[in-house]
Write a structure and sequence with these properties.
Elements: H1 2-24, E1 33-42, H2 48-58, E2 70-75, E3 82-88, H3 94-111, E4 115-121, E5 125-130, E6 144-147, H4 155-174, E7 181-189, E8 192-200, H5 206-224, E9 230-233, E10 237-242, H6 262-297, H7 324-330, E11 339-343, E12 346-352, E13 358-364, H8 384-404, E14 408-410, E15 419-421, E16 427-429, E17 436-438, E18 444-446, E19 449-450, H9 459-464, E20 466-468, H10 469-485, H11 501-511, H12 527-540, H13 551-559, E21 588-589
Parallel strand pairs: 19-21
Antiparallel strand pairs: 1-4, 2-3, 3-5, 4-5, 6-9, 7-8, 8-10, 9-10, 11-12, 12-13, 14-17, 15-16, 18-20
Helix pairs in contact: 1-2, 1-6, 4-5, 5-13, 8-10, 8-13, 10-12
Main location: membrane
GO molecular function: ATP binding; protein serine/threonine kinase activity
Subcellular location: Membrane
């Protein structure tokens, strides 16, 4: 009898939740950004998980004991257990906070109709839920970043004042009361005031809050590019700065009030549910009539394509599947006029979808050889300013793959031929045919099958089949030296020495003649920038992967002259240096191609 009653109550409650969605969704404001996370599986309609999610979200803000804008509750058991976190900005009043979270639960479940994990941000609040434990765990991805268009006038002074302000706020927030880790303040430079705000979810430890905010603050010089305002949103923390006051006074925390324990919160949640569910039984009959009327009137549904992305968003790229006919039409039957180039396994075409979106399509060929002709840039078109822009763009692209993507992505075949330039010469990393996905907490993977391009592969990968983000860092360093020198990595400068690009660069670095490797066409480029890029490249190609910087550090070194560079150690040799004398364990090697093109498996992708 108890089981039957529970099922009926769940059914009634699910009906009420659906009714609320139908009646509210039409006028629902859009999120700043939301993510439907597919890694943890999906739930089916009317499943226990959906019922638990509906129950939990409907009661998330009903707890009247906490007035500090933070809600974290769970509902359900075992694999059907749902965990939810709601966080409002620290200066937002309780009624506004609850309204924002109520809007969030309606829209987030609508935009992510069957994902077990999702997150969405409004200006005033964030809501996330998952079937895994998310309480007290520092998570910095997925991220959302947005910045204003206005540039600072006195860049160096502005960055210094802003950096000091944000780090001061970080210290305050991280050490704040466990009920609200939030801080705001302002600083003035030449009569112009900058306002800053930082916040962590209160369930984080002081160290985790500090780490999350430090990570967010470090992204300001990387992505904001001297803009006077911007926002960084992460699951565990957020920051914002503007040149106008955008926050209200923060309500004072009552020192006599304490946060309830997890056990008390669980009891409170169950009590609230016990009170609300019987109410549903009373009103469900009239609401069923109401839902029929609403369904008839509501023909238009929320279209995800109508939610416009800001051009400056940094987001997770979702895979799209197209049938062959769509691709054939998009490329005018794979017209020669739309050919962009070709690689080892087929020709790449430009296509235009029906909606106007421009895409690149590789048509695989079963009888094509491994890339007969490599793509070569016109060096005359690439002066130092353009090359420096390309270097920075590639670095930011790798940083996204390694750090800001939902999953850590190791490209494994970063080289000049896999960098595409758009009409404005903005670089795009391409060809993810042999890329590997790593979990966020994974740092290294081993393989018995070595694939890639010789000359760009890190020594630990070639010798032992070990690859990590540091493998991509090594490839990046080789690529930077190629861009600066205009020479191939495996080019032998002095045959009697079997000297490749890395060896040549290292020898000239030690002998104080590093200018010997600079492309003569770059004579008008900034010598300081060129030398600094060579220095950074040598740090990236050091033989010991521990000594190589991560891409976040590389981007900072490229964008700021205030960071002192370490002295590089000897790089690995591509042709015949010390690395080649190391023992190689028994591994399966794919044969090296004559033109050093990518070595991949010919499976459709």
């Amino acid at each position: 009898m108890t089981t039957v009653s529970s099922k009926l109550l769940f059914s009634f409650y699910s009906v009420l939740f659906i009714i609320i969605i139908v009646s509210q969704a039409q006028g629902q404001p859009n999120f700043l950004r939301n993510y439907c996370i597919n890694n943890n599986g999906n739930y089916t309609a009317n499943s226990t998980y959906q019922n638990n999610l509906s129950t939990l979200l409907s009661n998330l803000t009903s707890n009247t004991e906490i007035n500090y804008g933070f809600y974290n509750f769970s509902y359900g058991q075992n694999t059907d257990k749902v965990n939810a976190v709601g966080l409002c900005r620290g200066d937002v009043k309780p009624d506004v906070c609850r309204s924002c979270l109520n809007d969030s639960r309606v829209l987030l479940t609508k935009l992510c109709p069957n994902q077990k994990e999702a997150i969405g941000w409004y200006v005033d609040c964030m809501l996330r839920y998952s079937n895994r434990s998310i309480f007290g765990v520092m998570e910095a991805s997925p991220s959302y970043l947005k910045w204003t268009l206005k540039n600072a006038t006195e860049v160096d002074q502005f960055n210094q004042v802003l950096g000091n302000l944000m780090r001061k706020l970080k210290e305050i927030a991280a050490s704040s009361d466990s009920r609200r880790k939030f801080a705001t303040a302002n600083a003035t430079l030449n009569f112009e005031t900058t306002y800053g705000l930082v916040q962590c979810t209160p369930d984080l430890s002081q160290q985790d809050c500090n780490d999350c905010l430090e990570r967010a603050i470090s992204e300001i010089p990387i992505y904001f590019n001297n803009k006077v305002g911007g926002i960084v949103l992460k699951p565990s923390c957020n920051i914002r700065h503007e040149i106008y006051s955008f926050y209200d006074p923060t309500p004072v925390i009552d020192p006599g009030e304490t946060s309830p324990s997890e056990e008390e919160k669980s009891k409170s949640s169950h009590t609230t549910i016990a009170i609300v569910v019987p109410t549903v039984v009373v009103v469900v009959a009239s609401l069923l009539i109401f839902i029929c009327i609403c369904v008839r009137k509501r023909k238009a549904k929320i279209n995800l394509e109508d939610i416009e992305d800001d051009n400056n968003d940094i987001e997770i790229a979702e895979s799209l599947l197209f049938n062959f006919e769509t691709l054939r039409v998009a490329t005018s039957n794979f017209s020669e006029a739309n050919k962009l180039g070709h690689g080892g396994f087929g020709i790449v075409y430009q296509g235009i979808l029906a909606g106007g979106q421009v895409i690149a399509i590789k048509r695989l060929s079963t009888n094509s050889g491994q890339g007969d002709i490599e793509f070569k840039n016109e060096k005359a078109q690439l002066d130092w300013e353009r090359r420096y822009k390309i270097i920075g763009g590639i670095a930011r692209g790798l940083l996204y793959l390694h750090q800001d993507s939902q999953l850590r992505i190791i490209h494994r075949d970063l080289k000049a031929g896999n960098i595409l330039l758009d009409e404005k010469l903005n670089p795009k990393i391409s060809d993810f045919g042999i890329a590997r996905l790593l979990l966020v907490d994974q740092t290294q993977v081993n393989t018995n099958k070595i694939v890639g391009t010789y000359g760009y592969m890190a020594p630990e990968y070639v010798m032992f089949g070990e690859f990590s983000i540091k493998s991509d860092v090594f490839s990046f360093g080789v690529l930077v030296l190629e861009i600066i020198s205009g020479q191939k990595a495996c080019h032998v400068f002095h045959a009697q020495r079997s000297e490749d690009l890395l060896s040549f660069a290292w020898r000239n670095w030690r002998e104080g003649t590093i200018t010997n490797i600079i492309d003569p066409s770059l004579s008008n480029g900034s010598r300081n920038e060129i030398m600094r890029c060579i220095h950074i490249a040598l740090l990236c190609v050091q033989e010991n992967l521990v000594e190589r910087p991560i891409m976040a550090t590389v981007v900072l070194m490229l964008s700021s002259y205030y960071i002192t560079l370490a002295v590089p150690l000897e790089p690995a040799s591509i042709v015949g240096g010390r690395s080649r004398s190391l023992p190689v364990r028994d591994m399966q090697f794919e044969g090296e191609s004559r033109n050093h093109a990518s070595i991949t498996d010919p499976y459709p992708r």
